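Dear colleagues,

I hope this message finds you well. In preparation for our joint manuscript, I am sending the Outer membrane protein beta-barrel domain-containing protein (Lujinxingia sediminis) sequence together with its predicted structure, so that both groups work from identical material. I would be grateful if you could confirm receipt.
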Amino acid sequence: MKMNTQLRWMFTLAAAGAMTLTLVPEADAARRASLGQNRLILDKNDVYLFPQTSTEYNNLLSLEYGGSQNSGSGLALIGNDAMVFGLGIYRGDLFSAQSYPYNLGHPNLGNIGNPLAPISPQPHTIVDLFAGFDLGAGSAGARLSVGNGGQRNVDAEDVVDAQTHNFVGLTLGYSMMGDTRVDTGLNIQFNSGNQINGGDDVIDHSRLAIGATARAFVPMDDRTSLGILGDVTFESEGATGRTYDANGNETSSNEASASAFGIMAGVGPVFEVKENTTLAGYALFGVATEGTDPDTDADFDSQRLTTYLTPGLHVAADIQLLDWLYFRTGAQYTFIGATNSFERDPNAGNNVRDTETANVRTSDFGWRAGLGIELGDFTLDGAFQAGFITNGPDFLGGAGGGMFTSVAAGYRF
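The corresponding structure tokens are as follows:
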């Protein structure tokens, strides 16, 4: 049976996801955004990938202010030298994941800088619970993420239209401290969604994602280390679409499925130029493949998209200008190849091939910059609007559209 339009559109978007390249979000953690999402410069938002690093940011209150009053996030970490507990909160639409540009908790290495996108948009957590434990030679931690969102309308005749989305995620991490530092994280996520039209259950959707990520710093000399990054992810999706007649009787249904696998690795130097100035750069190589089958009962309708990152380059600098003032900047370049294969019926017409392929190669570049202020235990970071730097502020006749895309305030107590 043919897939209904909504279900087919969902999986078309999923297949297109791996071709999507967005270098910089418009509402993000300000310091890391200023660095272009560089993963080799340590930051408090590491706790979302590696919850054990919460022990390094003990007794912290941090608020991230996005480009509007309903975007941003909050993080509180409280504890002692042995253990830390924390809470993260987010503002955003859980059901419409793409309305909030960047999910801080996504397990993929590089997050928004990773062009090997998952097969479906990642919903955004509304609450995180953290726990971190100092083990002496290392640290261990866990993060539990939960969320629920959607909408429900009931008319005067008790007819229901509803959309719901539920999310739960568990991240486990361990860090080895010493001459060589190694951070590891294992992430398991489960999503489920449902849509009801006129009281009829028209779509049920589920997704399971498992990801592992690692980061290591291998010392080369007193001020130089070699940074190593690694990431592997697997996802599986399933959806059931149903149609009904005017009496609410089910007339047809179909099952759709999708799965994806991706692996990425990066390596590059980290220079501690001065006590509080860091330069980092790395090259990334990766491959991701995903297959979609919009109707598991039908033949010759599957599709496979394979994406190659060959290579990606990422550089960033965190520069101390004064005792209290920092300038931060980062840039990314990616060169991507993709092959899309469509299954075809070799017996149909004059087509003697069982697959049809399309190849694409493209490159992209992006940069970010920002300022940071540190006054004792208080920090204030801002990520510049690109137009503010290149066109100037509005009050001087420019067209920058504002100074910052996001601002973050933090206090250690």
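For the figure legend, we might mention the following. The first helix runs from residue 5 to 17. Residues 5-27, 93-122 have pLDDT under 50 and may be disordered.

With kind regards,
E.M.
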